[in-house]
Amino acid sequence: MRTAEDRARDLHTRGLAAIGGGRPADGARLFHKGLELLGRQGPLAARILISLAAAQVQLGESQAGFETLDSAEALTAPEDRGILLLQRGLLCMLVGRMDDALRYLNEGIPLHSGTSDHYGVASALLNRAMLHSLAGRVRLARADLIQCQQVARDADLPLLVAKSQLNLGYCETLAGDIPAALRAFDQARPRFATDAQGLLPVLAVDRARALLQAGLADEAASELDTAIELLDGPRATHERAEAELIRAHAALAQGDLAAARTWGHRAEAHFLRRGNESWAAIAALVRLRADFRARRRLFFVARKAAGLAVRLDELGMPTDAEAARLLAARALIARGRAEEAVSFLDGPRTSWPILDTRLLRQLARAEFHAAQGDATRTLRHVRSGLSLLDEHRSRFGSVDLRTGTALLGKDLAHIGLTTALEHRGATAIFGWSERARAQAFLTQPVRPPADPEIADTVAELRQLGLSIREAELAGRADPADRRRSAELEHRIREHGWRTTGSMTNTQVADIQEVVDELAAADLALISFLPDGVAVRALVLAGDVRRVVTLGEPADIAESVARLRGDLDALCGRRHPASILKVVRGSLDYQVDHLTATLIQPLLDMVGDRDVVIVPTGPLSSIPWSLLPPLRGRAVTVAVSASAWLYARRAPASPSTQDPLLVAGPHLDFAADEVRKIAGIFPGSTVLAGPAASVGDTLSELDGRHIAHIAAHGHHEPGNYLFARLDLADGPLMAYDIDTLPSPPEHVVLSACDVGRTIVRAGDEMLGFAAAFLYSGTKSVVAGVARVADDAAVDVMARYYDRLFHGATPSSALAEASLSAPLIPLVCFGSC
User: What is the pLDDT of residues 569-585, one digit of tens each?
Assistant: First the structure.
C-alpha cells in the first residue's frame, strides 16, 4: 500500500509537470494537496513548498511566494540548499530583482549540479540564461543554454530542450540573426504543441520580438494579438503583461501612438500588480517613446526618462537604462536644449547592445550635431548607423525581411537626407538620397533551399487558388477556402524568413558613374527625393546637377490616387455620357496638375532627352506616358539610380532568344494578342488553353530573353508574395518567380494592374513586377492601373514590332503607346 509520502511525491511530480507546461494554477493545487498529506513537515514538504513558491509568483502572488520560501528554509535539508537558492533566484527574476536573482543562481547552480535533479539543474541554467539575455550578455546566455540542452537531452527531458531552443531564439534575436532566431523558434514549436500548449503564446511573443527586429511591425502585431487572446484571464500573469509590452512596441513601430500608450499602460499596470518594478519601468519607457514621437510634453519626457534610466540601472537592466538615457537626450535636443543632453549622451554604454540601441546611439548623436549646425559630424553618425543596418540586412535571404528593415533606419535616413539638402550640394544629396531608398535591391538575392513540405504547401495553395477563382467567377465564395488560403500563404512566407542572407551588400553608385552612363545613352535622370516636407527632384542631365523643389507631398499623393482611380473607372467599362464626361474631366485635370507640378519645372534641364525616373512613395504609381511632355518619350522607372546603373552593367545571361508567349484563361483578347506577337516573332513558344499551366510556364520562363504573359492579374496589397496571374491550372504567384534559377531578361505583363507596387519605408518596392526585378530581370513592362485587354492587343503588336527592329523596351513602349494615350503601362528596370 502506498504511503502518504509516496502520494505526496507523486503530486509533487505532477505539479512540476503542470508548471513546466505553463499551468501554474494546476501546479499550485497539486502542491497544496501534497502538503496536506505531509502536514507541512520534513524535507519533502520543504521541496514542495519551494515549488509552490514558484507557482504563486507566476500567478501574481509575489509576496505569498517569498513567504512560502521563508517557510521552506527552516525545513530544507543541507543537500537541498541548492534547490532553495535556485528557487529564490527564479522568484527574484520573476519580480524584476535581476541582480539578486543572478547572485542566488550563481550560488545555487554549483551546489545543485552534482545532484540527480537534472530537471532542476537544466531549469536553473535556463533561468540564468534569461538573466544574461536581459542584461545583453548574449555570449554567457548562449553558453548556459547549450549546457542546459546537453543536460536535458542526457536526462531525456524534451520539453526543457524545447525551452532552451526558445531561449536560443531570443538570444539570436538580440544578436540580430533573425533567420536563426526563427529557425530556433520553429524547432521548439512541435514539442510545445504536444506537451505544453500553454507555452505557445510565449513562443508567439518571442517571434514577435524577432519580427520587430526585421521591421515587420504588422506581422508582429498580428502574432501578439493572437497571443494576448490566448493569455487572457482574470490573473495578471507575467506572460500576458510581457505580451502587452511587446504589443506596445509593435504599435509604436506601426506609428499608432495612441495604441502604444494604451498597451504600455496596461503592461505597466499588470507588472506593478505583480510587484515587478523592472518590467513596469520598461513599459513606462514605451509610453514615453510614444509621447516623444508625438512631440508631446518633451520636458516631461526628458525628466521621466532620466529617472527611469537611474531606476533601470539599479534594477540590473543596463540596455534599457541606456535606451532611457538616449530618449532623455533626444527629448532635450528636440526642445532646443542640446547642451543639457550631453551628460545623457556620454552616459554608460552596454557592452553588447541590441541593434535598436546601437541605431539609437547614432541617431541621438546625429540629432545633437544637427542641432549644433555641424553637418559633417551629423552625417558621420548617420553613415555609421546606416552601415549597421546594411550589415543587419545582409543577414536576410528573404526579400520580405530585407525590405522591412528600412523601417528601422527611417529616422536616420531622413536626417541624413535633410542635412544634405540644407548643407550640401547636388553630389552629396545624390549620395544620401541613394542611401535612403531601395537598399534591398543592393543585397545579393538568396533563393531558399528546396523543401518538400513547402512544395506541397505551395501546390495546395495553387489548387485552392483555382477553386477560389472559379467560385468568384460563378458569383459565390467559400470563407473557409479564404481562411485556409491565408494560413498556407503565411506558412510559405514564414519559410522564406528563415533563409540566411549572403552577408554581402553592394555600395551605392558614385554620381560620376551614373552621369557617365546617362551621357553615353543621352539620357536624363529625375530622382524624386523622399523628403517629408516637400517633393523635390534631383536632375542629372548633361552638365546639369540640380535640386528643384516642386510641391506638397499630400497634394501630389491625392492627385496620383485620383488619376489612378479615374483610369480604373474608364477601363473596359461603358458609362453614360454624363458620367464619362465627369471622369474624363477629372482625369484631364489630374494629368495637367501632375504635369505642372512634377515635370514642367524640369523641362529646361531635361531638354529632349529620354528619361530615367526614380520615384518616391505614391509617385511609383504614376503612368508617366500620360503626361504630355513625356508622351512619345522613352521613360524608364527605376527603384534607384544605383540599381539602374548596376543592372545596365550586368552581363547578359545566356538565354533563349525566341520569346515565350502565354495566354491565360478568361481574358477575351489574350489569344489574339499572343497570335499577333507570334506573327512578329515566328519562333516564339506559345502556351495557350490547357497548355498555359503554371508548371509549363515556369519551366519555359527559365532562361528566356523575352517573356510575355497576357493573363488576369490580382494585386495583393497586404501580401506581395501572393500577387498572382491566373493560368489554366491555378495562379502563378510572385513567390514562384524567386524559384527561377535564371529569370527572363525582359518581361511584359500586359493585362490588369500587376505593375502596381507596395512601397514600404525607404522606398522599398514590392509587387509582381518587383519580384522579377529582385530576381535579376532587367526590365518589366506592366500596368500601374487597369489595362483594357482589347486596347492592349494593338499596343502590344506595335510594341513587339519595335522590339523586333531593335528598339529598347522603354522606347518601344513610348512609340506603341501613342496609339492609346490612356494605356497605363510603365517600363520598370534598366532599359
Answer: 887 667 678 788 888 89
What is the per-residue pLDDT across 493-550, written as a single tens digit (0 to 9) for each?
A: 777 777 777 667 778 889 999 999 999 999 999 999 977 788 999 999 999 999 999 9
Residue 749: CA count within 13 A, CB half-sphere: 35
- Residue type (1 letter), 128: R
What is the 3 state secondary structure string of 500-560?
A: ECCCCECCCCCHHHHHHHHHHHCEEEEEEECCCCCEEEEEEECCEEEEEEEECHHHHHHHH
SS3 string of 163-223? HHHHHHHHHHHHHCCHHHHHHHHHHHHHHHHHHCHHHHHHHHHHHHHHHHHCCCHHHHHHH
d(CA 117, CA 376): 60
Strands 535-541 and 544-551: antiparallel
Q: Which residues pair with 732 in a beta bridge?
A: 725
Report the sign of the C-alpha dihedral through residues 797, 706, 725, 393, in that order: negative
When pLDDT is cut at 50, 70 and 90, the band that residue 658 belongs to is: confident
Angle at 556 between CA 602 and CA 535, to 5 degrees: 55
Helix (H, G, I), strand (E, B), or coil: what is residue 724? Answer: strand
Answer yes or no: are the C-beta atoms of 594 and 560 closer than 8 Å. Answer: yes
- C-alpha cell recorded at residue 768: 509582381
Q: Which of 796, 794, 829 is nearest to 810 (CA)?
A: 829
Residue type, 500: T
- Decide: helix, strand or coil at residue 5: helix
d(CA 242, CA 247): 8
The CA distances from residue 206 to 124, 173, 212, 231, in Å, are: 20, 9, 10, 14
What does the mean pLDDT of the chain come to?
87
Q: Mean per-residue pLDDT for 427-433?
A: 91
Instruction: Give the predicted TM-score (pTM) of the model.
Output: 0.81
String of DSSP letters for 80-100: GHHHHHHHHHHHHHHTT-HHH
List the beta strands (DSSP E) in 650-689.
Answer: 660-663, 685-687
Helix (H) or strand (E) run with residue 612 in it: strand 610-614
Coil, strand, or helix at residue 156?
A: coil
